[in-house]
Each structure stands twice: as C-alpha cells, then as structure tokens.
C-alpha cells in the first residue's frame, strides 16, 4: 500500500523558480505553502540542467515560448545557474490548495493576494517571471516528484521504488526510448 492508493491524497511538486531565488523569496514561498497544512515530504536545492528542464516541460515543447521557458528555469535570465528550491507536498486537494496560493500562470492576471500576483511580473520580452512552479494536476505532480527526487529523499513511500528507480530514463529528451512502460501513463 502506497500513499497514492489511499484515496483523496494528492502529491505535488513546488519549485521556487530562479526569479524567486534571486529575489530572496524562498523562505516566504515555503511559509505560504506551509500555511496550507499540506505535508512537506521532500525538499532540495537543484541545479536545473537543460536535460532536467526539457523533461520537466516536456508537455509544452510545441509552445512558442518554450525555448525561453527552458532558459528561464535554468536561471539564464537571472544570473542564477545553480539554484532552484524544489518541494514535494502531499495532502487532500493538494493541487487546488497549492495553485490557489500560487495564483494564475500569468502574473499580470493573478490575484494580488497570490504569490504570482504580488511578486511576479511579465518581462518586456514576454517571459512570465512567476516565482513558483506548482504541478497542474495530481498525475503531473507524481511524474514531477519522481523526476526531481530520488525515492530515498522522500519521507514517505509515495511510489513503488521499482518504478522510481527508472528515473534515469525519464530524463531522456524526446520522450521514452528505453523505458518499459509508456510515458507519462506509467505514473497514473
Ligand atoms: P502553470 O505553471 O501555471 O502550471 P503552465 O501552462 O503549466 O502553467 O506553463 C508552465 C510555465 O510556462 C508557466 O509557469 C510559465 O512560466 C510559462 N508560460 C505558460 N504560458 C506562458 C505564456 O503564454 N507566455 C510565457 N510563458 C508562459
Ligand atoms: Mg503547469
């Protein structure tokens, strides 16, 4: 029995993006997410390589803003090559709760009480400096947690470790080649 079998629990990845890190907002972001009462089950600094960025934003690869999005999450526009802070949270309705705090994707449209609405901006080049990433849904959350964390970095056993051990192949740009199960359906 794993957490994901237990009904209402959802798991999500939250990332303080490079713009949030250079503005010194990591602690504030964590404080806001802690206030949801969701359970934090992992946290780590990460260097976002192109490989990781491509795997993370795989579903947006056809978008016109894709290349700049990849460079943004890698820290290229924030003189921040090394540092984002990633968290995993679990709990009831985690997606809804966390996305309510993050706010709308476009910081100019986000409610002023949200993290993105109060602290984000759109650059003159149209890049959304929106401070945080929050998984869009539970399935994406599970995929992303496996992508960003090793199983032993989680304080709960969220997934079968046999699947989690396949992390290396998820990093392949261009989708599944050597994996045994289809992608991303294997995370459902
Ligand atoms: P989300 O982060 O609110 O879930 P997604 O649609 O998953 O939004 O997009 C992922 C990220 O891509 C956004 O957080 C933002 O950084 C960027 N993005 C999304 N839509 C646009 C856009 O129209 N212009 C520029 N960047 C965008
Ligand atoms: Mg999303």
Counted up, domains total: 1
Q: Mean pLDDT, as a whole number?
A: 85
**What is the rounded Rg?**
16 Å
CATH fold-level name: Alpha-Beta Plaits
The count of strands amounts to: 6
Report the major sheet: 4 strands, antiparallel
Q: What amount of the residues lies in strands?
A: 15-25%
Task: Tell me the name of the CATH class.
Answer: Alpha Beta
Bound small molecules, which ones? inosine-5'-diphosphate, magnesium ion
What is the helical fraction, as a range of percent?
25-40%
Uncertain parts: 162-166, 175-188
Could you tell me how far the N terminus lies from the C terminus, measured between alpha carbons in angstroms?
A: 15 Å
SS class: alpha+beta
Can you count the helices?
9
The CATH architecture: 2-Layer Sandwich
* Largest sheet, spatial ordering of strands: 2-3-1-6
Morphology call: globular
CATH superfamily: Nucleoside diphosphate kinase-like domain
Helix/strand order:
EHHEHHEHHEEEHHH
Quick rundown:
The protein is an alpha+beta fold and 188 residues long. It is 33% helix and 17% strand. It starts with 8 loop residues before the first strand and ends in an 18-residue tail after the last helix.
Textual characterization of the structure:
With about 190 residues, this protein is α+β, with helices and mostly antiparallel strands. The chain has a single domain, classed as Nucleoside diphosphate kinase-like domain (Alpha-Beta Plaits, 2-Layer Sandwich). It has helices at about 20, 25-35, 50-55, 65-75, 95-100, 115-120, 140-150, 160-165, 165-170; strands at about 10-15, 40-45, 85-90, 120, 130, 130-135. It has a four-stranded antiparallel β-sheet, sandwiched between helices. The relative contact order is 0.20. Mean pLDDT is about 85; it is low at about 160-165 and about 175-188. The site of inosine-5'-diphosphate has 9 residues, from loops. The site of inosine-5'-diphosphate (IDP) has 9 residues, from loops.
